[in-house]
């Protein structure tokens, strides 16, 4: 990780916040069981269920009143709904387009709106009774009706749909669902399981999710952008090419509390970035300062419509090389300007470039003046620039009372007045006053530095003031040969000459015996690889690289580190100032990378059995997977002409989502010193949301080989997994956990193979917020706060822990779910252990929102992604590129993993990505 503006504690917070803001993952209601699993008797509950939410007799934590954004629902017993499958097709003279598929993200809102308009039209024509509809293929009705197929004249529909259909017919086909045509959605027993390996029935949850969105959609003020996410149609300006919309992220969960099973409505405020839809591209191009590269990068693949021609939509491929007044842009025998004036009475600026439309088999140039982005297109994370990040952070960093008030107002719209009347017709009510929760408070743990010096953090968990002067718990002593390398075009070498002695001074003060660099090299970025080749040959251990912080240099730096196995540290020029915190931050990174330990949390006596300072039989594994952005239509078309199209629906291994790989980061404390975490990453094709079991087995085997070589007698394994939804728990337990156990048993055999495993999922990808109520006011929760009853699942151990303190806005508690517990960890101990592991970051002088193993795994996955970006930009004849085969444009990801991973190198045993 580069030491830059992105590396301050504020920006660690920014990174987590942006991932939360931009997350576009399915809600749990999308995981629908096809057949129901028989329910066991309540007396047959698993160990997890028996322990879930149980307060131990020795729990001395203080309980304070709190509020949540989780609201209880009541359903009238025995109420039923009828489920129908919907297919809506736009019938054109030469083609037919199924609108309910909605595979093109750019057209999704337009097509969803057309589907909603059709169903509402039929409802008003008394063809469909009172209903709840997801805008796609699923329709629930209050009463039964006959199946039908009917054609609707698009001229009878609202203006937007009428324009999109261009006078053509929309055919609506409604059929009774073959598997579950009618069901009692009040039978919530089916939504709970006694064994995590069983699949719960999510049909009631799916119906209630759609139902609680329907009234807001009916008002005409909201659009469903993704399942469970509604945004107000009002757009607010943000930065060039982007606008902000405010919405509600919501979902349904089922929980048992005080012997009663009831559904819960969960909601949270969401403000995020959309492509500007209120201006033509000509205006936006001016806002970009007519910078073609930035404009093309931002809008490539974005779906637009032509204001000159109703119903005409296209994706942006790029801009013309010449202005539209140039002969190369002529339309047949006319200039483009004359064609648009004669045909559409539109005057265009011939000095501007035109949009090249991505239309297969055609070369189509559209003037910027008549091209306008379709509404409802989310800006993907990779296109959020620094200016937009700052704006998003500011917009989302609102006071807790304001955020809470927003959610309760929206819930009021759903459950009061006309919204309540609509729900009541289905036998459903929502209690707006049912969101009280009890919050358990505990203190954050102390940390220990050198000489058994105990540092007691402030109430918010931070100890930066003490960290500046502390000596390291375990200074590294392996770093002997290192270079300073600077970008001669962006760095003043006099600054470097002043900075390095100060850095050495801070290292010495911390107890790190860092010798002076062997040399300082001033290079151009193009010479960076040759520097690494020389460093490898000279057995240099560390390259300290200084430049102005361009992303291209960071990705290249980490690629060459991974290939040549020379540790690196990047510092940007603005951080060369004499700031104690910044200097200590850099020194802490150096020590952590070089097998040192900066500080250690003090394990309380209640966690003595998990104190890894004294217990070397406990192996803690963390892993996470990062997925690439979806393939662009142009990428898919290139593959269609080649044998074995990986994007084909009948591809045996599943449909490919991107030519880029998914990256799995994995780490563990497998060294001789169990306090040191090391790790690696590996690539897999982006065909599935989960981790490929065989590759996971191999990665765990490599971790265990290091542990065994270090003489570690592993008897207990704690696995912490990041970022999966409840619908993926079954796969994690039935596929991923067995793969982990298999990798372990590949190394530890015979009596050594008898280790027990516990598996915990830690995620911030949820929409639940909690607040403390202090003197009647809504305030943020504090580090150490826990919610573990009333709103948690009762069939497994689940809790919410606030381990960190946000610098701005409202924190989101991390949700923990224990889906396997062979170690029989009691809930209170598990909560305390996650807090302790969140105080092991080593560089950030405060607790983090996630435990170190998954925090580190997430960063490892990100590192692998950055390395791939640099890899694909290498020329084909580059030394690194030639070591990896390519087939149909798809890299051999096994070979790529072998080339750039750390699994067979000593650096894989340390925090090389600190």
Automatic annotation (TrEMBL):
<dbReference type="InterPro" id="IPR003165">
    <property type="entry name" value="Piwi"/>
</dbReference>
<feature type="domain" description="PAZ">
    <location>
        <begin position="280"/>
        <end position="375"/>
    </location>
</feature>
<dbReference type="InterPro" id="IPR012337">
    <property type="entry name" value="RNaseH-like_sf"/>
</dbReference>
<dbReference type="GO" id="GO:0003723">
    <property type="term" value="F:RNA binding"/>
</dbReference>
<protein>
    <submittedName>
        <fullName>Piwi domain-containing protein</fullName>
    </submittedName>
</protein>
<dbReference type="Pfam" id="PF02171">
    <property type="entry name" value="Piwi"/>
</dbReference>
<dbReference type="InterPro" id="IPR036397">
    <property type="entry name" value="RNaseH_sf"/>
</dbReference>
<dbReference type="InterPro" id="IPR036085">
    <property type="entry name" value="PAZ_dom_sf"/>
</dbReference>
<dbReference type="InterPro" id="IPR003100">
    <property type="entry name" value="PAZ_dom"/>
</dbReference>
<feature type="domain" description="Piwi">
    <location>
        <begin position="566"/>
        <end position="869"/>
    </location>
</feature>
């Amino acid at each position: 990780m580069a030491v830059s503006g992105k590396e301050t504690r504020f920006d660690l917070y920014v990174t987590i916040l942006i991932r939360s803001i931009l997350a576009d993952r399915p809600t749990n209601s999308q995981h629908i069981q096809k057949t129901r699993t028989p329910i066991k008797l309540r007396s047959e509950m698993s160990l997890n269920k028996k322990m879930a939410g149980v307060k131990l007799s020795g729990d001395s934590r203080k309980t304070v009143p709190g509020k949540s954004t989780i609201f209880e629902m009541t359903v009238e017993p025995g109420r039923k709904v009828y489920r129908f499958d919907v297919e809506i097709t736009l019938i054109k003279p030469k083609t037919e387009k199924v609108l309910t598929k909605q595979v093109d993200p750019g057209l999704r809102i337009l097509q969803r709106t057309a589907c909603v308009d059709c169903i509402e039209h039929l409802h008003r024509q008394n063809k469909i009774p009172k209903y709840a509809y997801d805008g796609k293929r699923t329709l629930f009705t209050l009463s039964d009706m006959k199946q039908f197929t009917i054609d609707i004249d698009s001229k009878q529909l609202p203006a937007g749909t009428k324009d999109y259909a261009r006078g053509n017919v929309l055919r609506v086909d409604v059929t009774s669902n073959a598997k579950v045509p009618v069901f009692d959605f009040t039978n919530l027993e089916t939504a709970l399981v006694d064994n995590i390996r069983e699949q719960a029935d999510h049909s009631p949850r799916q119906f209630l999710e759609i139902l609680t969105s329907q009234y807001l959609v009916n008002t005409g003020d909201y659009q469903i952008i993704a399942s469970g996410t509604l945004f107000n149609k009002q757009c607010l300006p943000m930065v060039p090419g982007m606008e902000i919309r405010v919405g509600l992220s919501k979902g349904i969960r089922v929980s048992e509390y005080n012997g009663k099973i009831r559904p819960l409505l969960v909601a949270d405020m969401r403000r995020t970035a959309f492509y500007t839809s209120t201006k033509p591209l000509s205006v936006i191009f001016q806002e970009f300062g007519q910078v073609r590269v930035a404009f093309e990068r931002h809008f490539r693949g974005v779906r637009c419509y032509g204001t000159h021609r109703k119903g005409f939509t296209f994706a942006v491929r790029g801009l013309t090389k010449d202005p539209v007044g140039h002969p190369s842009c002529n339309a047949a025998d006319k200039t483009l300007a004359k064609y648009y004036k004669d045909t559409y009475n539109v005057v265009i600026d011939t000095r501007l470039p035109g949009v090249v439309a991505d239309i297969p088999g055609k070369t189509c140039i559209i003037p910027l003046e008549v091209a306008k982005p379709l509404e409802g297109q989310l800006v993907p994370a990779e296109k959020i620039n620094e200016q937009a990040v700052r704006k998003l952070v500011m917009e989302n960093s609102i006071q807790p009372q304001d955020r809470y008030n927003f959610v309760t107002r929206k819930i009021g719209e759903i459950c009061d007045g006309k919204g309540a009347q609509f729900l009541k017709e289905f036998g459903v009510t929502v209690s707006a006053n049912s969101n009280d929760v009890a919050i358990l408070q505990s203190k954050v743990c102390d940390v220990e530095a050198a000489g058994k010096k105990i540092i007691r953090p402030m109430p918010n968990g931070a100890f930066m003031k003490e960290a500046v002067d502390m000596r390291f718990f375990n200074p590294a002593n392996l770093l002997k040969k290192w270079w300073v390398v600077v970008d001669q075009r962006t760095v003043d070498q006099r600054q470097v000459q002043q900075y390095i002695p100060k850095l050495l001074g801070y290292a010495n003060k911390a107890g790190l015996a860092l010798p002076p660099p062997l040399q300082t090299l001033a290079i151009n970025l193009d010479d960076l690889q040759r520097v690494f080749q020389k460093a490898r040959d000279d057995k240099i251990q560390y390259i300290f690289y200084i430049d102005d912080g361009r992303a291209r240099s960071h990705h290249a730096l980490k690629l060459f580190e991974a290939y040549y196995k020379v540790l690196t540290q990047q510092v940007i020029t603005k951080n060369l100032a004499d700031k104690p915190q910044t200097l200590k931050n850099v020194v802490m990174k150096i020590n952590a990378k070089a097998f040192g330990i900066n500080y250690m949390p003090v394990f309380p006596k209640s966690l003595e059995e998990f104190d890894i300072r004294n217990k070397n039989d406990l192996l803690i594994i963390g892993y996470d997977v990062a997925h690439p952005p979806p393939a662009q239509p142009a990428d898919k078309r290139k593959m269609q002409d080649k044998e074995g199209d990986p994007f084909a629906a009948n591809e045996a291994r599943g449909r490919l989502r991107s030519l880029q790989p998914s990256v799995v980061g994995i780490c563990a404390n497998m060294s001789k010193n169990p306090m040191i975490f090391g790790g690696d990453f590996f690539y897999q094709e982006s065909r599935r949301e989960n981790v490929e079991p065989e590759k996971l087995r191999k990665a765990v085997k490599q971790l265990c080989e290091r542990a065994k070589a270090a003489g570690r007698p592993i008897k207990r394994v704690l696995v912490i997994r990041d970022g999966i939804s409840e619908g993926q728990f079954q796969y994690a337990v039935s596929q991923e956990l067995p793969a982990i156990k298999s990798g372990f048993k590949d190394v530890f055999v015979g009596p050594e193979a008898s280790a027990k495993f516990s598996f915990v999922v830690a995620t911030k990808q949820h929409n639940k917020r909690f607040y403390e109520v202090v003197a009647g006011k809504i305030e943020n929760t504090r580090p150490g706060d826990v919610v573990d009853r009333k709103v948690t699942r009762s069939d497994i151990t689940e809790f919410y822990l606030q381990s960190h303190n946000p610098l701005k806005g409202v924190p989101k508690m991390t949700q923990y779910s224990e889906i396997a517990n062979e170690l029989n960890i009691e809930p209170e101990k598990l909560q305390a252990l996650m807090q302790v592991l969140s105080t092991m970051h080593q560089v950030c002088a405060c607790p983090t929102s996630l435990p170190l193993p998954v925090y580190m795994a997430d960063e490892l996955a990100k590192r692998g992604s950055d390395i791939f970006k640099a890899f694909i930009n290498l020329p084909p004849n580059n030394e690194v590129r030639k070591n990896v085969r390519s087939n149909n444009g798809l890299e051999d990801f096994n070979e790529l993993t072998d080339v750039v991973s750390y699994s067979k190198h000593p650096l894989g045993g340390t925090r090389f990505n600190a």
